[in-house]
Design brief:
Chain lengths: 466, 113
Amino acid sequence: MHYFLMTVRMDTAAQTLDPGATAWMLAASALVLLMTPGLAFFYGGLVRMKSVLNMMMMSFGAMGVVAVVWALWGYGMAFGPDSLGGWVGDPFANFGLHGLTASIGDNAPGLPDMVFIGFQATFAIITVALISGAVAERVRFGPWLLFCALWVTLVYSPIAHWVWGGGIFGATGIIGSKIAALDFAGGTVVHMNAGMAGLMLAVILGKRLGFMKDPNIRPHNLPFVMLGAGLLWFGWFGFNAGSELAADATASLAWVNTLVATSAALLGWLLVERIRDGHATSLGAASGAVAGLVAVTPACGFVDPVGAILIGAIAGAVCALAVSLKFRLGLDDSLDVVAVHFVGGLWGTLSLGFFAVPSSKTAGGLFYGGGLAQFWPQILTALIVTVWTALMTTLIGFAIHKTVGMRVSENNEASGIDVTEHAETAYELITTGGTFRPDGQPRPEPVEDSVTVSGAHAAPRKVPST
Amino acid sequence: MKLITAIVRPEKLDDVRQALEDADVQGLTVSEANGYGRQRGHTEFYRGAEYTSDMLPKVRVEILADDDEVDRLVDAVLASARTGKVGDGKVWTIPVEEAVRVRTGERGEAAIF
């Protein structure tokens, strides 16, 4: 289990490969990677027609940048040998994964290190991609890629090190040696982390033009959202059950809990909508499912299925209520990353204080005879992760925004970020004619009155001014 | 020669087309339209936020007809498109100067039948 990782490297020569676990973890890693394209569809359907490609590109861009950073130094900072007293791993000990290509069992018994490295890379990717929903439809693509690289280096990797990499919350860490928090698959590292980062970035970048006024700011393709939610759910079985790092009974329990908590959350969200708005919506079903997946993430290996159902049902209802907060605060967390991932992740993390089943790692939650003991480590971990990500994300966000600039111009935002950032449109509703210029032929002179398309080689293109 | 334009409920399009076919209409043009009259828009909810839309989807049916056919065809549209509730639509006619069949160059009545 993640939080159980040893800081002391085992003798790899003595390790024998576990083929069953290895096969499962190879498959689980591919499942988790599919979550990010799934997220691209989930987020893409939620934005306007003119922004869907940019929204999906924020996820695909994260896949591009984070995997490369992970292989070069991110993995070392998250799971390498302790440095700075357990606050971060050593990025240089195995830079570029040097020395790890054939080793077995450094991270989990019987697993080649490469499986674990790949599995963890997919977690880093989706965590960064999740943030993009809070700042939809207004971020320049290049600065977003820069943000991805800095954020995974300075925020994600250290937090992963504390919680899973044997750092401060680990069994021998300065905090973990005294009180042991539970986070099976990433309620703090992934969801609270991404949710709080999204909140900070949304504050720094400000709201979209027309936010809370323009009735056209609403989802353009709910079938995409449903497709994305389905892909996320599918991939999440790899995320949660894979976090056992073995093919065993606990992985199977996590699998079933990932099913039932999500189903209960879907129902919980729909119930709130039915009572409050009069209708159960497809967007509510998709959002409820994701809220349940988020909440059961830290809990799935530590609770029983009835506990998971209750965690999910409460998550669905709580997150459905939390989405309206942004309008009261006037904060454009465009796709409710805070309400779903921060709130859902916080609830899931704290829920272990109620529902954890007693085991060698915990005395159990309040409803399972453990009293309040499990609450304190849960609260402390949540608090430290939140403060760190809030602080560091603010620093990174301001640094990029005040130097190269993170927001597109008002004109470009109004025209549509797809055409101005990427020189593409997702849908052609009316054939507009024009000219076709095969590659290699001279470019036409820029057209007056055209909106600027960013990039040195971008062809000028007329778009309707709004 | 007249152009009959009918704005009708989308779910009534099939009935209207059938009624016009029964009235020996040889061809028509259909397009999607949005707008409002006495019937106002509808309310949608996305994650609890309420969106009221002013515009409603309708279908626009256009038929070219000889002057003495117009009343009969308008009646066919009225009979087939009516539900009796607000939002059934409108039908109007305007005079047409000329119609030409692209393939043959036929003009006037010969172009529309």
